[in-house]
Amino acid sequence: MNEVSERVRGWFAAGKRVALATLVETEGPSPRDEGAMFAVSSDHDLAGAISGGCVESTIVDVADAIFAGGPAQRSTFGPDDELDGGPTCGGTLHVVTRELDRATFEEFVGAQEREEPFALALGTEAPFALRLLHDDEAIRRCDEQTFLLRFGPAPRMYVVGAVDVARPLLAYAKILGFAVTIVDPRAPFAVAARFPGADVLVEWPDEVLARVPVDERTAIVSLAHDPKFDVPAIAAALRTSAGYIGAMGSRGTTARRAEALRERGFTDDDLARLHAPIGLALGARSPEEIALSIVAEIVKERRGGAGGSLRFGTGPISGRAPVPA
Asked: Distance of alpha carbon 248 from its chain centroid, rounded?
């Protein structure tokens, strides 16, 4: 939704009309979760996705019909549809497409910027009304013909260490919707201009983590791999409810860090929450690859994935031999 919002803001500023397609129901396998959105401008600029690319072209046709004066529509795409109109994942997608008015969009953006909890309510039957709901009582009154998509404050990521890996990590985290704070007591490193879109604090990380809001959606990532920074920071992180805590360092550094944390009173169960060495084993070497391995691990933990290959079984795919490990 972050990408869609940014693009739609520009379209409205340019005087374009906007059609918004929302995935309101799925049956069977689906490449996107319910609530995924795909926006089409009146001059065929596109943003977002509701599938792996197999139904979007049909939605563009639906949008054109709406721009021409037609009504909002509910479309169903099943596995028996033609290739350019049905999902190749084998499931069924139910999509509502309607014109998005600028006032509703600006109300949506304003609520997001104020980090207010609210819900986007979309009727799944004609006339497919779209409105924002700001109180629990209004949400409870919605019937089963209303699709509700709840919004609240963005999940947070706290990055300890304004090092080279932090820059691509910030870019990936923003794509995933995180509000990112980078913390480093070294002023020459913690320069806001190096990290556009992040809050940059020139403070000791453990002091910051002791006062900032943290919940189960929060990721805390230590990139400093310097014991005077990361041991106190990780100790502070382990005292929170953060859903992901990771720390960079070699296996030797990780072992020494674990011993230092045990000396501070942390148990093996506490240390089991710590992902160290950080990231999935992608063979990453560059800062960009390392950052990718970190966000991949965060997504794996968030979604409960196994982190292995998506290949079916162990045999060849399309006649090709499996790639050696």
From this structure: 22
